[in-house]
Amino acid sequence: MRILHTRIFKNDIKRLHPNQKAAVDGAVRSVVSDPEVGEAKVGDLARVRVYKFRVVGQLVLLAYAWREADDTLVLLALGSHENFYRDLNLTLSILGRG
Question: Which of 76, 68, 87 has its CA nearest to residue 28?
């Protein structure tokens, strides 16, 4: 499986502490092992899945898209629930998918 990430995802990762990055790595491994583990979204966010997990007691959301045809996982965004879906919709608009 090929794993890609957006610049926005990369910037989200940069702001984390090492222990938080380890938790995100575990979440990414979970998604890689089963790409359908995340909740499929509808409407403007169709073709996007969101995987929820905890980091140091706080709920964190990982947005990704899985292209089954070429077995590619695209990591889109990472963050807390507050304004996550609004920002994700903006991200997809910038990428030309929304």
Answer: 76
Query: Which residues, 6+ apart, have CB-to-CB distance to 21 below 8 Å?
Result: 13
The distance from CA 34 to its chain's CA centroid, rounded to whole angstroms, is 14
User: 9-66 pLDDT, tens per residue?
Assistant: 999 999 999 999 999 999 999 999 999 999 999 988 888 999 999 998 999 999 999 9
- Tell me how far CA of residue 54 lies from CA of 5, 59, 80, in angstroms: 21, 5, 10
Q: Which two tokens stand for residue 54?
A: 């905890």
Q: Rounded to two decimals, what is the model's pTM?
A: 0.89
Q: How many angstroms separate the CA atoms of 15 and 92, rounded?
A: 21
For the chain, domains (ranges, CATH) are: 2-95 (3.30.2310.20)
